[in-house]
Amino acid sequence: MDAATAGTGPAPLELSDHRRDTVGDPSREWGASQLARMDAQQEAGGSIPEQSPGPAIEASVGLSIGRLRTAALEMARRDAEAGLPALDSEGRAESEQELRDRCLSLFRDWTARQRDRLNGRVAEVEGLITETAGTIGLNIDRFERITTELFRLKKRQEVNRSLVESTLDRTPAEEGRTDADIETADRGDSRAFKTHWYALAISFLGVVEFLANAPVFGALLPRDPLTEQQIRFVAETSEGWAAGFQRVVSQFVLRPDAALLAAGVVTFLCVLAHFFGHSLRRLLLHKSAAQSGETVRNRSASEYVVPMVLSGIGLALVLGVLFEARVTLGEVAVDRFAQDSSKIEELRRNASWLRVDGNLVAANEQANRADDLEALAKEQREYAASMSGLSFPIFLLNTTLVLVAISAAYFHMRDTRRDRFNELPWERQRRELVTAGDMVQERIGEGQGQLVRLIGELKSLLTEKPLKEAPALVHQLEATIVAYRAENGRLRGLDPREMPAFAEPVKLELALEEQAPQRLIGTAEGYEEDRQELLRRFTEVRHRFTKEATTW
Fold it and tell me: Is the model's pTM score more than 0.70?
């Protein structure tokens, strides 16, 4: 029956004369009040309006109640058309019994869902608590292993330090020396090449270079006839085991310009090699100190690079000069031999004319001079040719001598460093362990916070009442039965309260007993005790970790 048909039906009855029948029965009083409200709404609209399920009922249950109410109204219209229930029949009508059964089934389904929801959430939270507590326990074990490894690393470092220091350290008491003696010995020992040996080596290299290069410069410089005659005289008159020494000394004494030039070149080589070797050693020591962090970088590496570069350029120039001098010696010897040949021919021609003139003494003198000059010219040409041919081998020899001088200066440089225990590998391992420990601490802290939140949520779930909305739901279900009775009476033009079939109270006998959620493992207090135990372990291990990480 639609709304139009319901609007043309019999007018609702006045129920004021029948209010006394409901006094004394709460269910009947509630039903009477419901009927009174429905009568008022019916007078205003002509039909029983829809009833809101209320804000306390979830949407799905509200939708089910709405459908149940619609079915109740349809059942009321169908029974009204069939004249059911009969006016003389007593007992509950069949449609109302069906409606009551459906209300009971809906209520049971709702209570089962509420309990399942709560139990499922409790089980989920308990699972998260168990998982989080297990993760925290594993992280604490890992944190304890890191702390133990840090302790073991410290002990190994102490043992190695004691072994190294016992090998390196030499105390005054052990050797019976004073601190000043040990300091002096350390300064001396810091030179890999002692000073007296260094001075001897540099002097010997200088003498070798001087003897090798002085004749070359003597052959290149302009010649003095008187000097050459004196040198030949010394060479002819020197005898015995000191003859060679006399000839060498005569070369240097009678040719001071060549000797000074050779001595200057040799001095340049020795000084430049000394500066180069010292600068190279200082540069390497500076880099080593900067990498190890033993000193502050208050000096720039360019302070050692600049003199090393300048001395290297000077050495290259001096070696180049010596090489070019030997190469040029051959060309100079050829030119001088040509000049000497011309002079020899002239002396021999003069000797021939003097013989023609009958001056045999002068002729012999000129002939002897020509022979001596020829012998000297040939000797110098052969010496120049041999020196020019050996230019590159002698250049390599000079380079070797320079490298030897640089090496001697390098090892003569005092090493201010002292052998000591190397803590860098141990410090690197310590930092790695401390970093790993800090990361584990962060994870443990995050897990503790999450565990506190989960335990709080579990406590809230354990105190929650899943059927707290049951009274509101029962009210809605009973209102559905009242709507059935009111609609049936309205359509039939009867007062539902006067009908014997509707004399039974509307109240539904529904079980509203609260049940505690099912706990799968333990109580919230037990979880809290476990959390406190984990926190206690973590506090102890963290105290050990902080002590081991900060007492190196």
Answer: no
Q: What span, in angstroms and rounded, lies between the C-alpha atoms of 552 and 547?
A: 9
User: What are 460's two structure tokens?
Assistant: 């809230």
> CB count, 10 Å around CB of 364?
13
- Angstrom distance (rounded) from CA 464 to CA 271: 97
Q: Tell me which residues of the chain have a pLDDT lower than 70.
A: 1-58, 168-193, 222-240, 242-248, 252, 286, 288-301, 415-419, 511-521
Are 328 and 220 in contact by the 8 Å Cβ rule? The answer is yes
Q: What CA–CA distance (Å, rounded) separates 45 from 3?
A: 9
DSSP one-letter code for 501: G
Q: How far is CA 378 from CA 231, 235, 334, in A?
A: 16, 16, 10
Over the stretch 257-289, which tens digit does the pLDDT of each residue have?
777 888 888 888 888 888 888 888 888 776 766
Residue 352 structure tokens: 């021939």
CA neighbours closer than 13 Å in the CB half-sphere of residue 382: 6
Structure-block tokens of residue 103: 């209300």
Q: Which tokens sit at 294?
A: 């033993």
DSSP characters over 149-211: HHHHHHHHHHHHHHHHHHHH---HHHHT--HHHHHHHHHHHT-SS-HHHHHHHHHHHHHHHHH
Joined together, the tokens standing for residue 167 give: 């090998």
Question: In one letter, which amino acid is 249?
Answer: V
Residue 96: φ, ψ to 5°: -65, -35
> Rounded to whole angstroms, what are the CA distances from 201 to 208, 302, 369, 413?
11, 29, 45, 15
